[in-house]
Amino acid sequence: MNNYKKIAIAIIALLSLLVVLNIGLNFWINKQLPKIISDKNETPYAISYTDLSINLLSRTISAEGIAIIPKKRDTVVNEKLGIYSKIKSIEINDFKIWPILFNNKIKASSITINTPQVLLYKKTEKAINNSKSLSSEVFKPFQEIIVVSKIKLLKGNLKIIHTQTSQPILSINNINLEINGIVINETSLNNTIPFMFDDYNISGDSLYYKTNEFYHLTAQNIQTTNKDLKISKFKLTPEYSRREFTNKLSKEKDLFTLQLDLIKITALDWGFKNKKPYFNASKIAIEKLAANIYRNKIPTDDLSKKPLYNKLLRDLKFPLKVDTLAIKNSLLVYEEEIDFTKGPGILTFNEFNLIATNIQSGFEQKKLKDIKIAINCKFMNNSPFKVHWNFNVLDKKDRFNFTGKITNLNTASLARFTKPYINATTKGTFDYLEFKIDGNDYNSYETAALQYHDLKVTLYQKNGSKKKSIIKSVIANLIVKNDTDDKTTTTTVKTERIPEKSFFNFLWLNVAGILKQIVI
Predict the structure, then answer these.
(1) CA pair distance 83, 73, nearest whole angstrom
(2) SS3 (DSSP) at 212
(3) How many C-beta atoms surround the C-beta of residue 79 within 10 A?
(4) Cα–Cα distance for residue pair 194/21, rounded to 1 Å
């Protein structure tokens, strides 16, 4: 037998051996893989499928018609708990043969999950109780079956349901997700975020999330990566009417209603370090915010001390830094109601634009720049109003500087606030009011300049707000100076802060003190 024949026989024998090995491996893996998914699956979930195919040459696994349900269910009370999921198909790419044969685990480069429909039933009304439950209920079971460095999810739907009410806690549709560089190990499972990653890209539609007993939020569209976030058509909506909300309170509390066209966060950096959250952003831009703040005076006053914003940021227990906050083309409405008989007093700030810079918490900081806030808007829909507000977070005396200028204020427009709130209306025009407040946690000194004309006051009877109190109105107009005669009147006032009231109450006391000095 010549050498050529020997070589040919050897090649044929080697190829035959490879074919036999391939057939054997394919047979073994086809038997082993279903066992990993079902018989040797030690997770709390049973996994089934309608079709499973394996290609050793391309090292891919494909499954269709996947269903995931808890292994143990409460048959006594017939209550669903845990994850119930249906998935159109799953593709696993570049899997390793050895872990399947000897470790009962799938290790692969990536997994693509197509059209998953996920329902999570919970006994509590929290979407995520804590990071430990997330680790034990989701990531650890996942890690027991498959280890991948890339997850891709296409056109998914997620709904978390409270079993006692059968109402959703969270839902989001059309989820598309890609996470790269995933690492899940014993160390990461003990972290607040139970896995490590390099980057991510997530989008979704029709978000609903019940934040607590009093509010739920919705959004039309969310797009986020590890570097930016964009949310459109966002709403924060109360669960109760104003009357219902007020009846549930033991102490005074504001009720918020918010909606905005767009919020965009750029140069985003967030996460957890030593189990503490941190949040950094170059810019947060908010377009067309409509914010309503409502307070009813029926509940008992909350007599706890209200810290100023210096202290609120100084005492945050985690790093927070936002270089620029920009709010554009917005509307801010404040309503305060003594009871439900007269309707609320209303203050509006239209065409509201705000730029704030150097926003930062005091956590582990030794020196910080002043936070600077500039506001440009129209007060009560017609009077230009400009504000400059500065303070330093690390200043333990909580000093601040607040300057404002309002022009061409038709005081009759204040009737929506003064009539239901203090049983009074005014006529006349503030040509301009310019003031400067230098304050701290205890008191403030303010200087002001005011020019006005044709000021008149009308008082109303307490028991019939539509009926004028003629005598009291006459006396009030004898006391009030109705004109500055085209001259500017200036004054200086000192105001004591009421520590149980907010910063904005303090601001109002300053303005009221100015008006009292000049007008009366």
Answers:
(1) 11
(2) coil
(3) 12
(4) 39
Identify which of 229, 231, 230, 227 has the alpha carbon closest to the alpha carbon of residue 269.
227
Give me the amino acid identity at 358: N
358: left (phi over 0), alpha (psi -120 to 50) or beta: left
Q: Calculate what percentage of the chain has a pLDDT beyond 90.
A: 48
Query: Which tokens go with 225?
Result: 């990566």
Please give the Cα distance from 331 to 333 (Å, whole number). Answer: 7
* Residues 452, 430 contacting (CB under 8 angstroms): yes
Distance CA 451, CA 428 (A): 11
Q: How much is the pLDDT for 115?
A: 96
Interval 160-210: pLDDT, tens: 998 888 889 999 999 999 999 887 766 666 777 777 788 999 999 999 999
Across 255-393, the runs of DSSP E, i.e. the strands, are 255-266, 269-273, 276-296, 320-337, 345-360, 371-379, 383-391
Q: How far apart are CA 24 and CA 222, in angstroms?
A: 48
Return d(Cα 68, Cα 26) in angstroms, integer: 26
CA of 318: how far to CAs of 67, 322, 359, 422, in Å? 41, 13, 13, 43
Three-class SS string for 408-438?
EEEHHHHHHHHHHHHCEEEEEEEEEEEEEEE
Report the first-to-last Cα separation within the chain, whole angstroms: 126
**Encoding tokens for residue 460?**
């109303």
Nearest CA to 450 out of 418, 480, 474 is that of 480
Strands 106-122, 146-162: pairing is: parallel
Cβ density class 238-261: b for 16+ within 10 Å, e for less: beeebeebbeeeeeeeebebebbb
> Quick one: tokens of 255?
């009720």
Strand 345-360 and strand 60-70: the pairing is unpaired
Please check whether residue 209 is in contact with residue 170, taking contact to mean a CB–CB distance below 8 angstroms: yes
